Amino acid sequence: MTTPRRRSSGRGGPRLAPEAPTIIETPLDENALNAPVTWRELPHAVKRQRAIAGLENQRAMAVLRPRMEQHLRAYTMVLDALDEAHGRIADETDLDLEADSRQAAVWMVAGACIGSARAALAPLGAGFGAEAVTQERAAHEATRLLGALADEGEAELLRRWLDDGDRTWVRPYVTRDADERQRTRLREAMTAAKDEALAAGNAERVAAIDVSLQVASSWNDAALSTGTRQVYDVMSRVGHSRRSGISHAVSAELRQMATGPHPDPRIRAEYVDHGGLIVEEIAIAVGDALDRFHKHDWYTQEVWPLILAMTALRDAAPLI
């Protein structure tokens, strides 16, 4: 049984499979699309392979179960911290939670991000794999929406989300466009700041801005953009029940399909690892959004250490 894997591109990020070949339309042979099926006893060779696979799974589980549980506990700790900070805003401020305001919108969508992530961790903890991806996709799209709603330069998008019209609601491609506009504005602002620093003869300021511009330019680096696309690609394939999104559950050799918790702990571990990427994305997006309500250094003191701990855990107790 297989699952989409993150493969090293040699450039610091994962890479996608090659582009799909051009489809050439040919007349269909209806007979070729139908297979004759007859009943028979399960071959002894398959029974033997199932027994061998069972023993291999037991050995792998002995190693991977403690690691998966450790990762899932870490993910839950991150979400608990975000949840506590999110709840304090409702408990300790006078924010009108139903107002047509940017602050109310950010608070609501931040909570949706946390909820979707928790819903994804539940099946992962129960041993499921791809079944968690639907909620992961919802969480991923919510983080993109959250960033757009928090952006002071996207007033029209905010109004559309608040209005929630049947034909004008904010679709995922709208938030992706808003994200790119935000990056463009930031690059333009940094360039203008560099020009001012040059005019003032402030070499130290110019050097600092140059470093920031280099970081900003990395947003367009193929490795990073490909990594983002692959995370979404995995979620899209599973969410749309594509052949490649279902095949993870099928073993032709064992003549079995996982319709409950996945029997292969290595497959489970890959999906737990993928869930960690989503939790990390949520920590960054929700942390940044809630930082607007809390004290100035809240994100640095409370959220960033949790993200660093997740990275350290990934290195110390790898799942894939």
Describe this structure in words.
The protein is mainly alpha-helical and 320 residues long. The chain has a domain at 63-165 and 229-316. Helices cover 66% and strands 2% of the residues. It contains ten helices and four strands. It has helices at residues 44-92, 102-125, 133-150, 155-163, 172-200, 203-217, 222-239, 243-246, 265-291, 298-316; strands spanning 7-8, 14-15, 250-251, 256-257. It has a two-stranded antiparallel ribbon. Strand 1 (7-8) and strand 2 (14-15) form a beta hairpin. Helix 1 runs parallel beside helix 9 and helix 5 runs antiparallel to helix 6. Mean pLDDT is 84; it is low at 2-18 and 218-227.
Task: Produce the secondary structure layout.
Elements: E1 7-8, E2 14-15, H1 44-92, H2 102-125, H3 133-150, H4 155-163, H5 172-200, H6 203-217, H7 222-239, H8 243-246, E3 250-251, E4 256-257, H9 265-291, H10 298-316
Antiparallel strand pairs: 1-2, 3-4
Helix pairs in contact: 1-2, 1-9, 1-10, 2-3, 2-9, 3-5, 3-7, 3-9, 5-6, 9-10
Largest beta sheet: strand ordering: 1-2
Molecular shape: globular
Number of distinct beta strands: 4
Q: Proportion of β residues? A: under 5%
Query: Which blocks of ≥5 consecutive residues have pLDDT under 50?
Result: 2-18, 218-227
H/E element sequence: EEHHHHHHHHEEHH
Please give the radius of gyration in angstroms.
24 Å
Structural class of the helix and strand makeup? Answer: mainly alpha
Largest sheet: 2 strands, antiparallel
Instruction: Round the mean pLDDT to the nearest integer and report it.
Output: 84
How far do the termini sit from each other?
15 Å
Number of separate helices:
10
Fraction of residues in H or I helices? 55-70%
